[in-house]
Amino acid sequence: MTAIIPAILSGGFGSRLWPLSRRARPKQFLPLFDGESLFQKTCKRTTGAQFEAPMVISNQDHRFLIGEQLQELGMTAQSILLEPVGRNTAAPAALAAQVALAQDADALVLLLPSDHMIADEKAFQQAVETATPVAAAGHIVTFGIKPDLAHTGYGYIKFVPADEAVLSVDQFVEKPSKQRAEQFLEEGTYLWNAGIFMFSAKAMRDSFLRHAPEIWQGVEVARIKARQDLDFLRLDPQAFEQVPNISLDYAIMEKQAGICCVPMDPQWNDLGSWRAIWETMPKDDAGNTALSEAIFENSTDCLVYSEDALVSVLGLQDVIVVNTKDVLLVAAKDQAEAVKTIVAELDREGRPETVQHRRAYRPWGWTEEIARGERFRVQSMMIKPGQGLTMQRHIHRAEHWVVMSGTLEVSVNGETKYVTENESVFVPLGAPHKLKNPGMIEVRMIEVQSGAVIHDEDILREPAEDENRD
Predict the structure, then answer these.
(1) Which domains can be identified in the chain, with CATH numbers?
(2) I need a surface site. Which of 71, 109, 332, 363 has the fewest CB within 10 A?
(3) Helix runs in 163-235, H state only
């Protein structure tokens, strides 16, 4: 039987998990569970004899995160496809089908989000195995989660009752009110919509050409005009921006006849809010849980996450505390879904806290701001072995580097030298400079910037340098 191509969707932001999830490093890339990210767990879940190497469809801003996290797993994607703008789930589904068709006319695709938690992977694998012959026969198959409560944050699938492992879909239903959700649970003919689909690439092509040809054709133009960039394929921006911004449910599923559903119970959670995180985590006898160091006294059903401080919770119930190095969120648990309204307000104000943490990840490593004031900034830096920063100069600031560990190859004004632990280098204002880690261990260093303008816009690069290095 034809192997299955996993198509992993990794373009979301996860605004309801702010301030931990941010646009530059959203929830699917955060190592929240067992030191692995949800993206990595999704990749591992789709390995084995029945699967081919995955294709990853992602926002272009996350390309190096994807490469780095795949490398940590020792995995190689067959393709990493970069969207210049977000276009919901219909366009990625069409793209996955087109790429799979180019590889194999009989290809089967498993389309799945990268930001969901599945605790029982054996149950998931069994559901995929059940769906495979049905998808190979030309049906689009969706996977429904058996509900255990009247959840208003999920879409629902209404199925035709039958004593079968594969059911016929009667209707897709949007997120309901509390009253309707309770009715769905009582009726017993509804499943949560997990947003996971299996299909033959030919069947998905035929569905798009029948119901949404403009999406298929627009994606095809963007793919044909795409350009290769290192290990990534960048879709053509102008063509892709013209593709309708619509979900796969609206574009295809609500219109297509003969859709099948495989019910499953793999201890699934979409981790869409801090309440969902609390529901997933092991708890103490009082219902409290922490993803970091915390003390609970006379408190019940609370959640704590803290990056750099002990959090003490005293006399509280149903409270969420999330502490990052630049933001503190304290929320009633029943208001967890409303975190996105805070994010929207900060976006309107142009605040950076929704975009980037103090630690900013780069292709070559990371920087983390320690202090900032009038005419100065101090930051810690890590440079990976073999990586470095491009040749550049600054018009308004000078820099002073102190190496804490490792060996740094530094070029300033055309003079190159090696700087090791406890040694330093001064870079005068306007001096062309670049640096590289030539060794086999990470370089850790402190950078002090001083001058009239302390901003990343005060960087002039050599045009011949590789744009992806910094």
Answers:
(1) 4-269 (3.90.550.10), 274-345 (no CATH), 359-469 (2.60.120.10)
(2) 71
(3) 178-187, 201-211, 213-224
